Amino acid sequence: MKIITQLMKSSSRGVFLKPVLKPLLLGSARSMSADVTSKYNFETLKVTQPKEFVTQVEMNRPKKLNAMNKAFWSEMRTCFQQLNSDSDCRVIVLSGAGKVFTAGLDLTDLDTVAVMQSDLDPSRKAFMIRGTIADYQETFTVIEKCTKPVIAAIHNACIGGGIDMTSACDIRYATQDSFFQIKEVDIGLAADVGTLQRFPKIVGNDSLVRELIYTARRFHSDEAKEMGFVSRIFPDKESMLTGAMDIAEIIASKSPVAVQGSKVSLVFSRDHSVREGLEHVAVWNQGMLQSEDVMKAVMAGMEKKTPKFSKL
Amino acid sequence: MKIITQLMKSSSRGVFLKPVLKPLLLGSARSMSADVTSKYNFETLKVTQPKEFVTQVEMNRPKKLNAMNKAFWSEMRTCFQQLNSDSDCRVIVLSGAGKVFTAGLDLTDLDTVAVMQSDLDPSRKAFMIRGTIADYQETFTVIEKCTKPVIAAIHNACIGGGIDMTSACDIRYATQDSFFQIKEVDIGLAADVGTLQRFPKIVGNDSLVRELIYTARRFHSDEAKEMGFVSRIFPDKESMLTGAMDIAEIIASKSPVAVQGSKVSLVFSRDHSVREGLEHVAVWNQGMLQSEDVMKAVMAGMEKKTPKFSKL
Amino acid sequence: MKIITQLMKSSSRGVFLKPVLKPLLLGSARSMSADVTSKYNFETLKVTQPKEFVTQVEMNRPKKLNAMNKAFWSEMRTCFQQLNSDSDCRVIVLSGAGKVFTAGLDLTDLDTVAVMQSDLDPSRKAFMIRGTIADYQETFTVIEKCTKPVIAAIHNACIGGGIDMTSACDIRYATQDSFFQIKEVDIGLAADVGTLQRFPKIVGNDSLVRELIYTARRFHSDEAKEMGFVSRIFPDKESMLTGAMDIAEIIASKSPVAVQGSKVSLVFSRDHSVREGLEHVAVWNQGMLQSEDVMKAVMAGMEKKTPKFSKL
Amino acid sequence: MKIITQLMKSSSRGVFLKPVLKPLLLGSARSMSADVTSKYNFETLKVTQPKEFVTQVEMNRPKKLNAMNKAFWSEMRTCFQQLNSDSDCRVIVLSGAGKVFTAGLDLTDLDTVAVMQSDLDPSRKAFMIRGTIADYQETFTVIEKCTKPVIAAIHNACIGGGIDMTSACDIRYATQDSFFQIKEVDIGLAADVGTLQRFPKIVGNDSLVRELIYTARRFHSDEAKEMGFVSRIFPDKESMLTGAMDIAEIIASKSPVAVQGSKVSLVFSRDHSVREGLEHVAVWNQGMLQSEDVMKAVMAGMEKKTPKFSKL
Amino acid sequence: MKIITQLMKSSSRGVFLKPVLKPLLLGSARSMSADVTSKYNFETLKVTQPKEFVTQVEMNRPKKLNAMNKAFWSEMRTCFQQLNSDSDCRVIVLSGAGKVFTAGLDLTDLDTVAVMQSDLDPSRKAFMIRGTIADYQETFTVIEKCTKPVIAAIHNACIGGGIDMTSACDIRYATQDSFFQIKEVDIGLAADVGTLQRFPKIVGNDSLVRELIYTARRFHSDEAKEMGFVSRIFPDKESMLTGAMDIAEIIASKSPVAVQGSKVSLVFSRDHSVREGLEHVAVWNQGMLQSEDVMKAVMAGMEKKTPKFSKL
Amino acid sequence: MKIITQLMKSSSRGVFLKPVLKPLLLGSARSMSADVTSKYNFETLKVTQPKEFVTQVEMNRPKKLNAMNKAFWSEMRTCFQQLNSDSDCRVIVLSGAGKVFTAGLDLTDLDTVAVMQSDLDPSRKAFMIRGTIADYQETFTVIEKCTKPVIAAIHNACIGGGIDMTSACDIRYATQDSFFQIKEVDIGLAADVGTLQRFPKIVGNDSLVRELIYTARRFHSDEAKEMGFVSRIFPDKESMLTGAMDIAEIIASKSPVAVQGSKVSLVFSRDHSVREGLEHVAVWNQGMLQSEDVMKAVMAGMEKKTPKFSKL
């Protein structure tokens, strides 16, 4: 007891609190006016803010068919971690520049292949490989950890890693001409960055899921819609992006406390029993129901006005 | 060892068993002839027995659009706990009186709002709020704990708490004109009485689930059917209730030991691994396969007769 | 959207909040001055408040060796549910009146035995028996659900149900002359109200645990201490109660938000992985660190004073 | 330390390794040329190898409508355990000989019924019954434990145990005239060999699942397709078997390391959280990515050739 | 419906039940009189029945220090599976013939080593190795699955696999001169047949557990007792076997329904949350409380006689 | 298929593998010769390599009693992440410079306090606080994620965060004069960086655990040893460091594949059922048993030499 209290004597309440708080709170204020592109400066991703509180993340290696190279695996992670604490962002639309959404893993740019081919002792290789897999898994898990809803807007090819990635998104829209391929068995491996874990929990036809995984055959937008992998089909990329932005705008207009709490609870509940999910959301809401957003939303509802929510 | 045996000396087997047993067994016998409405006397619910072993629970505040007020949250819990041990009830049909199924939470009648608005210390508010949420959660969890199948018969509006409630039912039927709304983000909060836990485990289109939750938009009977939330659409309320009663009657004619064991196992298995679910049903059936119902059912099958099962 | 907003029109914010809030907050205020004995009026339990915020619950059928009869199973549940929301109670000491702590289950007063002996169909008996077991389990689980620490003060015999009950307590103290017996196999059954679940997770010698359970042999205070079931031995009942009260008083002087949050997290974490336990306490504390108690405690520490915490 | 090293002195590295290895490796080599029918000699099953690496298992009691008798429950287990380690088998097609796929449990040939009817003490019956249930459950769980994909090709009736069995398969195809019935409540029991555990996790319409289970009503191929239980409908048995063989051939042409790793991960991930599933596949692939199949597959892809994979 | 009933017509109730039942029930009757040694005929194990209902399993390769060779891994599994359904066995004492309890894995007799050394593709080796590990794990898991309590009586060396094996037993006794060694890191591997899973859940000093595992140092009987791995120390092997037999005899005199139900619940509860453990034992006891043993035990208790329980 | 193969055409196998591999493998080679202190340059930590493969991490703010400030929370994380992939490190000894091990949280240097005191909306505060807690939790979880064993060498005061930190270590040694305090309730909060999750799973006396947590009283080295929190007591800091280094040296001499695999399995198994732990270690070892270390270790054992293992 003595030790702690001695440590504290030298500082009075007023002194140590104020200076710390200021930059902390200003920080988020300043971020509002900052230019989104300068904040998010990536080689493989283009980040823009087409509407208030709506961020678009575009995979941006069109000449390489947005294949996932080493820079991508690292930048995606950084990008979504940053978006997670950016109060100007409430919803994210994830799309691909150029002709296709993504061709998946860029096999020309992988350390793992080098490790696999080396003469190292198998157990030492294994430690290295596990490290890389864990890193790549985290790249897509950050999409899920990011508390803001992520809408994948898919056109043309969505292959291999593209399925892993979009399975970690909240909502999937696609163009009429889009097609999908769970490619991994074709390159001699079991998918290991999320498809086998998330894809079957998203759709309602396990028989089809397994056929697609074991055969690596293509499936098209209509089959994807019927099985519940995507929820809307649009005639082309442009109309899809418009549609995605419209939904994004609606979500962005809601209380971010409510929307992000919903995502946290949905992700938690998918992986736990109903009872555990209920306990979790009760503990979550014991704090969150004290939000000013509840009263703002209720009042606005009564007055038939659109509420404006503070940044989060 | 001594203590227990001494306690017992004073009573002989014959003496202490008989008197206890009689009222216990008569109790369930008497309940058979009792008038169901007098047994189930509620302000917000109307309970009737349209067919043998079939109970109808009707939300009964039509002028308030069956909005869920404090009395409702408490009465539902009591009602289903009572039905759970009522041997005259084998199936429950849950419907709404008046124009709509339910408008959801009655915001005009909530203690929680008062707590939220008070000047209490945030941690003390949190303890209070958690208590209330836990109580409300229990109100719908009793539907699931009740071992008898519950059929929700939904017409017109089913909003907010209505989704939480019907997600805890076994079977959902709806009228052509019905519509649904996961309303919670519109009042500034993450749904906390079951929708986020149960709804996504019921249907097979997670992309759509999340769109509906984040946007709070309405969806209609056909979309509800397509996504697997309801399994039958009827032209109107009357035909739906007839249809629900017909199915209820069929279920009521089956062995209650078999049907209720199936529900217990289904609910358990949803929340556990397949292996755990198998172990559970094996332990359950090691006792239940000794039921007279098995031989009754098999014999009736061979003789092409309809078996009659004892009360449970 | 319309429906909810229409419902709300008729009430303005000021109107519906105020009247609800008043009794709610007064309620907890009034409970402070109320006489504890009149609030807790039981046949088998005596409830007193020996010190501020410290409640003593005494099993009170000394002539029957505090054997657990039907009234006890019901009253314990009610008592601890009530204590859980009583802001005058921060710690509970659970003891037994008379010569022994408890002789365990009162076999002369059990419906279950009657059911077992009846001619009912085995599956129908099973449904009845499961109901009773679940009720009895809940009687001790409420000790764990009650967020206030419970100290068991054990003297002389602690048999059968006594082990189940004290295993659900937080802290166990015992007198030198105390002895314990996991009696259940001696009456032909596997213990089913908590010993087999909680006891092995409390102590650190599974080999001994199983010997005690399979043989139903007595073990004494020193063995109980050595294996980690009790943490302190006192010469006699009087000194033990004094010791228990002293510890209870210390706990009662701490922030109830901190102490009760700790219990909630301990119970949760015992049953979950470390990772899940960490996530749970993070969600818990995101609200609870906003408590006034934190600053009160820190300030008091710096000023070397004893903080006074508001009721919870 | 001494003890082990002494044990080892007597054998030098070269000596003890070689002789052991030879038969072990030859063993799998020899199995290649062996006649599949002589290896798999069963009373109730006919096992053939219509294509390289494709095994067909046909239930073969057409006069008894392929009803599941005692021999069947035992032979299925043996058959799939054997197939699991047969390197000539990479995919399995499971079908039924004669007019129907299967009529389910053969009630005329069951020990359990005898046990149920006996005068044994209920607890002793329970131990016996649990043993039998566990055995029967294992009969279908081996389909899931077998790392090779299993395609069920269903025609006409698929009743009772047929649902339990096909729910444990990976892919389900059916003929236009096929119908299904979760029969168990009609014989007075809750299904206990897998339907209640696996069926609801396969499809995306829980409302319909429960209706089918509680009513035991038949459902037909189109309803089965719509709810996601089967993924393809064929006009008749012949075209279905051709279709199933075509898919089987495609799967058999892929890397068995990749396909079987995918099945292992899919089954594991169904029963665990996404995070746990990801950790599992990372540990799995830390070894498996060292497979020669990866480079073979990648090289073949680049050269637009079909790779040939070694036996597994 | 038709199909099943047609199947049944040809057999009447009386006909199909009787003949099946007889051998089934006689089977267990006959086993009683059979000579235990002829029933349990093993190369590496000696099985005797020193007292009624008490079976002794002795590892019996004294010249090889009871090292675990291929025959052992297979015979242990068979032996305990057989004991599990042998109604003459209610408790098992597991001991070692000769100078030591066991030297652990017999490295001179292992296929795995051959596989490890071969030129096979690493992924194909991995499939083979996993099969062997799974088999060896099952060898000790059967000790746990066997519902009868198993007492390990350890003298002198208990090394490597000996720790894995005894960690799967219920109770561990040891001689004063016994010593233990978690040997695996010394042969270059992480223990994989149970020590890392079971050992830390048995004792109450995780710091010591990890020191022992990482250093592979010996620890002696007193340290084993202090940390809670063994619960009794005896001066020598003879006195230990006498002590173990005495405890075994006591356990054998109790209701086997009660004792074996306790073991099932203990094993289940170790691996589940308290809540799940409680639900499991409630479902278990809903059938088991109908046992004649309950009344026999209670009556015997009242009359201060020793009850005699039927075989199980 | 086309897309991927096209991507690959431009690179031949030899070309893309070699250049990538070289720096990767050289990287780990170079790290060997690098000066450890220059690699690990921290403000609050001093990192040295007293023996080959043994790293010492010393908390290094002696004037501040090694209180945990913002820099510390960040540097610890970085330090252990770096050590995790440093092949020169096989074991870590964690100690404190100066008079005490650590005084715990540095309350004078915390953003969280500022946030707590601000006027922000409670739900927005909650999001911020949760972020900070999660970061701090990760600081100690990295100790557990680091696959190398960590030995805590504790002298004098180990308070608050010190308990959280050492509970995440593998082995705990302490000096005679050391004392411990689970301080958190004294500053008004439930411990939230690991104590409530890990501490009770380490020791075998839950009654004492809860007394210490609820009262925040100090406990001394002997009580810590008796309850199993520390496993060795040394007379003073110097002898303790010598003792810790000796054990560290022994561990460092073992196969790192074996030791680190053991840690991974121990941590996994603590949080899963025995069955899941066994499956996990089987999948782990299917790759790791192919390690050269196994044969090296076995050969060295037979030849009574000390094996030398390659870097990992």
Automatic annotation (TrEMBL), chains A, B, C, D, E, F:
InterPro entries cross-referenced by the UniProt entry: ClpP/crotonase-like_dom_sf, Ech1-like, Enoyl-CoA_hydra/iso, Enoyl-CoA_hydra_C
Keyword terms, alphabetized: Acetylation, Fatty acid metabolism, Isomerase, Lipid metabolism, Peroxisome
Function statement: Isomerization of 3-trans,5-cis-dienoyl-CoA to 2-trans,4-trans-dienoyl-CoA.
Lineage of source species: Eukaryota, Metazoa, Spiralia, Lophotrochozoa, Mollusca
Reaction catalysis annotation: (3E,5Z,8Z,11Z,14Z)-eicosapentaenoyl-CoA = (2E,4E,8Z,11Z,14Z)-eicosapentaenoyl-CoA; (3E,5Z)-octadienoyl-CoA = (2E,4E)-octadienoyl-CoA
Protein name: Delta(3,5)-Delta(2,4)-dienoyl-CoA isomerase, mitochondrial
Gene3D superfamilies cross-referenced by the UniProt entry: 2-enoyl-CoA Hydratase, Chain A, domain 1 (3.90.226.10), Lyase 2-enoyl-coa Hydratase, Chain A, domain 2 (1.10.12.10)
Record family assignment: Belongs to the enoyl-CoA hydratase/isomerase family.
GO biological process terms on file: fatty acid beta-oxidation
Subcellular location: Peroxisome
One matching Pfam family: ECH_1
GO cellular component: mitochondrion; peroxisome
